[in-house]
Amino acid sequence: LFDWQLRDGSSHQGTVTSMEPNEGTFVLHTENTKKGKINPVHLVDVPGHSRLRPKLEEFLPQAAAIVFVVDALEFLPNCRAASEYLYDILTNANVVKNKISVLLCCNKTDKLTAHTKEFIRKQMEKEIEKLRASRSAVSTADIANDFSIGIEGEVFSFSHCYNKVTVAEASGLTGETVQIQDFIREYIKPLAQTCINRLNLRLDSYAFGL
């Protein structure tokens, strides 16, 4: 949904579950009216379903930045799953070595019952702290990654990561994407590549992707 909003400012009648990455090179919708030459950006929209995680890893070596989207409306039942996925991204060798900036984007914050970005940040930091402890008990190194995160003896915070992690609020349905666009223009050079990981949360289960 965010890729449509960024491209043409439309929600295209809501979201549709996707099981394949979508790529596109375009000028951001809000920049179409600007005078002069506007450089396009290349976005890769990778569904976050667990079976498709290898797809994301294919794009990470070329990524300039990552937007990781969680559903602020139905966040709690899926907090651990989202945190595990984000943990794997933050400890990925390519993300660490290239210091790829990550935007934790809280979607649907226009809804009255949605959780705030501060609540989501704190809950995910707590879950990642648990993951650090449990995985360290199994091995002195991360099970599936080359790097660990956090500071020994301190409770985990996103500020401890090798790369910069920021938290923002947005709504793909209403078009509130200013913070996403600002992030893109701050960290992504013309025609550079970014990955949008989307987390779609359902009442009966969780599934990654819109």
Relevant terms:
Rossmann fold; 210 residues; 6 helices; alpha/beta; disordered C terminus
Provide mean pLDDT, rounded.
77
**In total, how many beta strands?**
7
Distance between the termini: 7 Å
The structural domain count equals 1
Spans where pLDDT lies below 50 across 5 or more residues: 200-210
CATH class: Alpha Beta
Structural class: alpha/beta
How would you classify the quaternary structure?
A: single chain
CATH topology: Rossmann fold
Give the H and E element order.
HEEHEHHEHEHEE
Radius of gyration from the alpha-carbon trace, in angstroms: 17 Å
The largest sheet, given as strand count, sense and whether it forms a barrel, is: 7 strands, mixed
Specify the number of helices.
Answer: 6
- Percentage of residues in helical conformation: 25-40%
Outline, from the CA principal axes? globular
- Examine the secondary-structure arrangement and name the CATH architecture: 3-Layer(aba) Sandwich
CATH superfamily: P-loop containing nucleotide triphosphate hydrolases
* Strand coverage percent: 15-25%
InterPro entries: P-loop_NTPase, SRP_receptor_beta_su
Pfam families: SRPRB
Organism: Arabidopsis lyrata subsp. lyrata
Membrane topology: Single-pass membrane protein
